[in-house]
């Protein structure tokens, strides 16, 4: 309703005021975000979650309540042994979603493949054609996102990534990474270059503890970044951040929880897609920081989707922590909105 409230000082013209709309005057919890999502739906949308075992009524009820935006299926979770198990599982979870569900797995080729007979596991190093064959089979099962390519430059055979990386030369790895991104896209799948800013120069697995990589920023830019620059040039949809400690980048925090990493990726490399965490249940994180707290720090720093790979109880606690962080103002609703907008802008949405 327009209310006339007086005259201007210089001409007697009436000044109009607009009464606040219900949306504008609503509390942050009541305001609708991008795509008309509620706060609760937005929190679910920025989480990629896995669970152990087959789909049960309990899992379905939990998923209905939390509306998780990503489903991670990996061999360790034993969600199904065949396409006849996985396709119905994906369809049932997708059917109860009120927004987009991204279904993801690690299909790199070589030693890292989903254990489903209908999906070929091509030997490393895979190229564009082999990648497309694998990704096409995943797409047929209902998957959306292949968590690859590995974009790490191995320092040598002792690297924890040896057998998964594409070599020891930044230029060689960059060329291979671009081809794999293209191969995933040909199949109509989304890609996720990993593990930014580079996991190749360490013998330590982030599954167990936080790797420390003592490289200068100059070395980081010259050695670790070219493959990610190639992935971005080939329009990778996600960049997945590794649990890595680069003191030259941030002397106090792991790279995936540091604003410096997001600045490097967004500003220097110009990445416009979605930023995904690695599994927040890994020892590299939980040795010092509980998963729910780390998830909040990741989102506050600039992340778009946080991964909790194995346990629904941990995912539920993480959801609650994110909601509390929004309520307290520690995680601004605008930051959450931006993450959701980025995810909604992904191809196929």
Descriptive labels:
single chain; 349 residues; alpha/beta; TIM Barrel; eight-stranded parallel beta barrel; two-stranded antiparallel ribbon; 12 helices; 39% helix; globular; disordered N terminus
Structure, described:
There is one protein chain. It contains twelve helices and ten strands. With 349 residues, it is of the alpha/beta class. It has one domain: TIM Barrel, CATH 3.20.20.300. It is 39% helix and 13% strand. The chain starts with a strand and ends in a 5-residue tail after the last helix. It has helices at 22-25, 39-45, 57-66, 83-95, 128-141, 170-186, 217-233, 259-268, 283-286, 291-301, 312-328, 333-344; strands at 2-7, 14-18, 47-49, 70-72, 102-105, 145-146, 190-196, 238-241, 274-279, 305-308. The longest helix has 17 residues, at 170-186. It has an eight-stranded parallel beta barrel, surrounded by six helices. Strands 1-2 form a two-stranded antiparallel ribbon.
